[in-house]
Write a structure and sequence with these properties.
The chain is of the alpha/beta class and 394 residues long. The chain contains 13 helices and 12 strands. It has 2 domains: 14-254, 3-Layer(aba) Sandwich (Aspartate Aminotransferase, domain 2); 256-386, Aspartate Aminotransferase, domain 1. It is 41% helix and 13% strand. The strands form 3 sheets. Strands 2-8-7-6-5-3-4 form a 7-stranded mixed beta sheet, sandwiched between helices. A 3-stranded antiparallel beta sheet has the order 9-10-12. Helix 6 (158-168) links the parallel strand 5 (140-144) and strand 6.
Length: 394
């Protein structure tokens, strides 16, 4: 079996698993308890906070633990909106291809009287910084732009965006769920005010994430209860998961340069091989993308069928179309970069990591080529294109 869906979730690293089991079985005390067993758990919790802060250039007091990226996104955006509301600023800037954790939160804020500007990301899947700067107004309270896209893997000009926001005195949040542990991230040099991350995207456990909040920014609670996380996120901390997340991130960051070089080579080979398929197209910029992300559209086929047949061949991948949600609509990300519905439906996302071998890459290329050809052989859409009854788009 070849696992090529690391953007959905990653396998926990051995070190993360061992750490998690050790804490669950040996140091399972409640970190809010005053006795020795609880304080030992507190020490583990705070050590994890220190390690995560160090990995992104922050200070420990700027790290808040959450259940994952979605919760972190919600709290960051809600907090910035509340800060803006108190100042009479109710305009937020984002992009058309953010994760739904961001887009759905913004939709709710619109119903509460906020105005949202969604910037285009163009065919290459990148924000144009001049357009972002032009969109900032006197009443803009927040810019939220994802660090790297979860579907097409394009890496945004975060440092430039951060600089613009700093000069304009506007809060800047970035959803770094896909970037964290895969490319270098530093909240200081990037001029980031708030950043969201999720452990299961960098070989940590599911159900654990963190939110970086620059010192001086007041968080709005979205979970009320106890005084955990300095009173800003109620609920007994998942110490075992948090400790495992810190180990996983520390491990990932320590090998970023080697990871980037080796995985990028395999990614580029995948892109080159799949580009040989007639009437296909890479989605997003060829170079400004995550090391392990490859996303293609193939004209004349349905992505769901491609996925199921690749599964039969032992390849685990994903499609941009929202088949699992029961929706007939293709990915909003692909639509945002200008893919028409018919083409966007025939998409394939392959996200590899360091465990993907060169032989795996060649097998994926061979299998995708064979499967696309097979699906096109009985596709009425493809037949109409070949016979000239419809025009090719790709």
């Amino acid at each position: 079996m070849i696992y090529a869906d690391n953007a959905a979730t990653t396998k926990m690293s051995e070190a993360a698993v061992n750490t998690m089991v050790s804490v669950m079985t040996e140091n399972y005390g409640n970190p809010s308890s005053l006795y020795t067993f609880g304080q030992r758990a507190r020490e583990i919790l705070e050590k994890a906070r220190e390690d995560i802060a160090l990995a992104i250039g922050a200070t420990p007091k700027e790290i808040y633990f959450t259940s994952g990226g979605s919760e972190s996104d919600n709290q960051a955006i809600r907090s910035a909106a509340e800060i803006g509301r108190l100042k009479g600023k109710k305009h937020i800037i984002s992009t058309a291809f953010e994760h739904h954790a961001v887009l759905h939160t913004l939709e709710k804020l619109e119903k509460e009287g906020f105005e949202v500007t969604l910037l285009p990301v163009h065919e290459n899947g990148l924000v144009v910084t001049s357009e972002l700067e032009a969109a900032i107004r006197e009443d803009t309270c927040l810019v939220t732009v994802m660090y790297a896209n979860n579907e097409i893997g394009t890496i945004q000009p975060i440092k430039e965006i951060g600089k613009i926001c700093r000069e304009k005195n506007v809060l800047f949040h970035t959803d770094a769920v896909q970037a964290m542990g895969h490319i270098p991230v530093n909240v200081v040099t990037d001029d980031v005010d708030m950043l969201s991350a999720s452990a299961h995207k960098f070989h940590g456990p599911k159900g654990v994430g963190f939110l970086y909040v620059k010192k001086g920014i007041r968080l709005t609670n979205i979970i009320e209860g106890g005084a955990q996380e300095r009173g800003k996120r109620a609920g007994t901390e998942n110490v075992a998961g948090i400790a495992a997340a810190a180990v996983a991130l520390k491990e990932a960051v320590s090998k970023l340069s080697v990871y980037g070089e080796t995985v990028t080579k395999k990614r580029d080979r995948l892109i080159a091989g799949l580009s040989e398929i007639p009437h296909s197209a890479l989605n997003g910029d060829k170079d400004l993308r995550l090391p392990g992300n490859v996303n293609f559209c193939f004209e004349g086929i349905e992505g769901e069928s491609l996925l199921l047949l690749l599964d039969d061949k032992g390849i685990q991948a994903s499609s941009g179309s929202a088949c699992t949600s029961g929706s007939l609509d293709p990915s909003h990300v692909l639509l945002a970069i200008g893919r028409v519905h018919d083409v966007a439906h025939g998409s394939l996302r392959l996200t590899i990591d360091e465990s993907t071998s060169d032989e795996d890459v060649e097998y994926i290329i061979k299998s995708v080529k064979e499967t696309v050809e097979y699906l096109r052989s009985f596709s009425p859409v493809w037949r109409n294109l070949v016979e000239g009854k419809a025009k090719f788009i790709l």
